[in-house]
Specification:
- The chain has about 280 residues and is α/β, with parallel strands linked by helices.
- It has a domain of about 80 residues.
- It is built from eight helices and 14 strands.
- The protein has an eight-stranded mixed β-sheet, with helices on both faces.
- Helix 2 packs across helix 3 and helix 5 runs parallel beside helix 7.
- The longest helix is centred in the first third of the chain and has 24 residues.
- The two termini are about 35 Å apart.
């Protein structure tokens, strides 16, 4: 392990997507080294890839919608929710096993057993299609509205790495699919993390989506309008999560590349797009 741990943090949150083709190995190797050095981290993960595999094996086609404001979401009915919970559990087990190989114990935290993220259910989704808006009802996804940090603190006190899948409970006790980036922002705010790092397969916000060298190195809340104009696709939601984290007094948010060696160290050294208040 050759990670440069000179840039240390007291506590941080790192989010890795679960899309097919996303290899978390480089992140897990460095994260394990940092945890063993005494740093406190939360790992938030997605599960879109495992979800697509399970849906395919069951003959279910995932339904994605794009809202009139440009945000892409998955429609989650009751049967899709059951499959998504299974996908989250399976991916958590896989990540836990890999971290265990590096000598780090984990505590996957699920809302039905130990409530962390709380959410408001979005029963209907609005989908912009061919210039028209269609409404899909019976949705079991939600927007995170709060985060209880105690289970995370208990995991840390027991020397474990807390792991959070993108699941939350609403006020009626329903389990909901929530956006992992925004849940990571809520978690970072709740534990007063020094940094939130959101990793994906792009090096940050790009001025030209076809040119990885056009990365925006830094930004702040005063230039948010410009940043929003540069965000496309899934980056729009990551930027929204970044804003929520900063407004929740997280020290800084870094949007960075998961494919690099030592992605946390590279992000902390300015390798992504660093956002601050």
């Amino acid at each position: 392990m050759s990670a440069n741990l000179n840039k240390t943090v007291n506590s941080g949150v790192v989010k890795i997507g679960g899309a097919t083709g996303n290899d978390p190995s480089k992140l897990l190797e460095e994260l394990a080294a940092r945890v063993k050095s005494g740093e406190r981290w939360i790992l938030v993960h997605g599960a879109s890839g495992p979800m697509e595999i399970i849906c395919g094996s069951c003959g279910i086609e995932p339904v994605y919608v794009t809202s009139p404001s440009g945000y892409r979401s998955r429609f989650v009915g009751k049967k899709e929710l059951a499959l998504f919970e299974a996908a989250c559990a399976g991916y958590s087990v896989e990540l836990s096993w890999k971290l265990g190989k590096h000598g780090v114990g984990t505590m996957p935290i699920y809302p039905k057993q130990d409530v962390t993220a709380k959410a408001v259910r979005k029963d209907s989704l609005r989908s912009a299609e061919n210039g028209k808006v269609r409404v899909l009802r019976g949705n079991y996804s939600g927007t995170v509205c709060g985060f209880e940090p105690l289970p995370v603190m208990q995991a840390w006190d027991n020397g474990l790495l807390p792991m959070l899948p993108p699941l939350a409970l609403d006020s009626e006790g329903n389990c909901l699919n929530v956006d992992g980036d925004r849940m990571a922002a809520a978690a970072a705010s709740a534990v007063k993390a020094g940094v939130l790092i959101i990793l994906s397969n792009v090096p940050g916000i790009l001025r030209d989506v076809n040119d990885p060298l056009s990365r925006v190195e830094a930004g702040n809340l005063d230039m948010w309008g410009e940043l929003e104009g540069l965000a496309h696709g899934n980056m729009k939601r990551k930027l929204l999560a970044a804003k929520e984290a900063l407004e929740g007094n997280v020290g800084k948010v870094i949007l960075a590349d998961s494919r690099e060696d030592n992605p946390i160290s590279r992000a902390l050294a300015g390798g992504g797009t660093t956002l601050c208040r």
